[in-house]
Design goal:
- This protein is mainly beta.
- It has two helices and ten strands.
- The chain has a five-stranded antiparallel sheet with strand order 1-3-8-5-6, with no helix packed on it. It has a five-stranded mixed sheet with strand order 2-10-9-4-7, with no helix packed on it.
- The termini are far apart.
């Protein structure tokens, strides 16, 4: 009787083990990602430079994934540069790996810093975007109101 019980339990375990096997290998290359930033000030004066620290959070790590960054100046006028003072060109993209100071220690959370300097006496609005080599694109809008002179007094 014990032998029959052991055979039944063994057959049940074998059936469960073999029925859950899947010969298909699931290999993902195009992981989703998001673009966010650290706290940003709300107001900027003409000629003032502000730091914008970005976080690129990826759902997974695929070593052949490549990212590009760009921006569009929607309102106002200004300049975007990296930590070495190299200016990014409005409406053009640049490989993210070329941004100095790109922190790649954590492969799924990359941190980098850009700087914006306002050159106009009006509100500034910029749309930053990051795209990967799989066609995904994420945007982040940054707005700086003009700092009034009465607020300084």
């Amino acid at each position: 009787m014990k032998n029959v019980l052991y055979i039944c339990i063994g057959a049940l375990l074998a059936a469960l083990a073999f029925s859950s096997c899947n010969d298909g290998i699931d290999i993902r290359q195009d992981y989703d990602f998001s673009l966010s930033s650290w706290y940003l000030q709300k107001q900027i004066a003409t000629g003032e430079t502000v730091e914008i620290r970005f976080y690129l959070d990826r759902e997974g790590d695929y070593e052949k994934a490549e990212y590009e960054i760009g921006y569009i100046q929607m309102e106002g006028k200004g300049e975007v540069s990296d930590s070495e003072g190299i200016k990014l060109v409005n409406r053009e993209v640049r490989p993210l790996t070329e941004v100095p100071g790109l922190d790649t220690e954590n492969p799924v959370k990359q941190v980098f810093t850009l700087f914006y300097r306002s050159t106009s006496a009006r509100r500034s609005e910029l749309k930053f975007f990051v795209r990967d080599n799989f066609g995904r694109e994420r945007e982040m809008t940054v707005t700086f109101d003009l700092e009034s002179t009465t607020a300084k007094e």
